[in-house]
Amino acid sequence: MSRPEDVRAPEGHPIFVIQKHDATTLHYDFRLEADGVLKSWAVPKGPSADPKEKRLAIPTEDHPLDYADFEGVIPEGRYGAGTVMVWDRGVYRNLTRKDGREIPVTGALGKGHVSVWLEGEKVRGGYALTRFRTGKGEAWLLVKMDDAEAAPGRDLVATETRSVVSGRTIEEIAAGEEPE
Ligand code: MN
User: Fold this and answer.
1) What separation in Å is there between the alpha carbon of 139 and the centre of ligand 1?
2) Chain segment 89-141, per-residue pLDDT in tens
3) How many CA atoms lie within 13 A of 69 on its CB side?
4) Backbone angles phi, psi at 153, to 5 degrees
5) CA distances (Å), origin 153, targets 50, 134, 142
6) Do 64 and 4 meet the contact criterion of CB atoms below 8 Å apart?
7) Is the pTM value of this prediction over 0.85?
8) Is the pLDDT of residue 10 over 70?
9) Among candidates 120, 164, 124, 160, which has minimal Cα distance to 144?
10) Distance 52 CA to ligand 1 centre (A)
11) What is the 3-state secondary structure (H, E, C) of the chain?
12) To the nearest whole number, what is the mean pLDDT of the chain?
């Protein structure tokens, strides 16, 4: 499968994307390329740069790689109906290790823990995704690792409101305004 044109990664590096999605409820779809698809979670509060902030991440369906480029309005009645913004994107490195050895992302996800180093335009540094059980099934937590890119108290979602591909806000995308 080919990579999306606009998110072509340096050789050997998988991509990630975070799409702001104003659907029934506003959330951020966090997606990591693994095994030719985008592994996906809906993060109601979005990612934080503060290691003390644990962000709930609900697993959702795998998406095709070329969905990483999608920005626009999904019509009523369709899966994911609402407005989608490419809020951030970039490449990532797998940091998941056991006994000093790298654990491939797909296997790590199956075991319920993966650590990645994100190189986005807004989101950078190490992030850990960890599964836990709830009464209703499984959920995950997305937490900033305590590294040089950590920024205690920094609320990325509040300060970063525009698309990294078009510069538009979610309202401008919903209104069908053309990219600048
Ligand atoms: Mn969504």
Assistant:
1) 15
2) 999 999 999 999 999 999 999 999 999 999 999 999 999 999 999 888 889 99
3) 10
4) 85, -5
5) 6, 28, 16
6) no
7) yes
8) no
9) 124
10) 25
11) CCCCHHHCCCCCCCEEEEEEEECCCEEEEEEEEECCEEEEEEECCCCCCCCCCEEEEEEEEEEEHHHHHCCEEECCCCCCCEEEEEEEEEEEEECCEECCEECCHHHHHHHCEEEEEEEECCCEEEEEEEEEEECCEEEEEEEECCCCCCCCCCCHHHHCCCCCCCCCCHHHHHCCCCCC
12) 92
Terminal-to-terminal C-alpha distance of the chain: 30
Q: How far is 131 from 112, CA to CA, in rounded Å?
A: 5
110 closest CA partner among 90, 143, 140: 140
80 alpha carbon – ligand 1 mean position (Å):
6
User: From the CA of 94, how far away is ligand 1's center (Å)?
Assistant: 24
Report how far ligand 1's centroid is from the alpha carbon of 22 (Å).
8
User: CA 83 to CA 119: how far, in whole Å?
Assistant: 25
* 42 alpha carbon – ligand 1 mean position (Å): 6
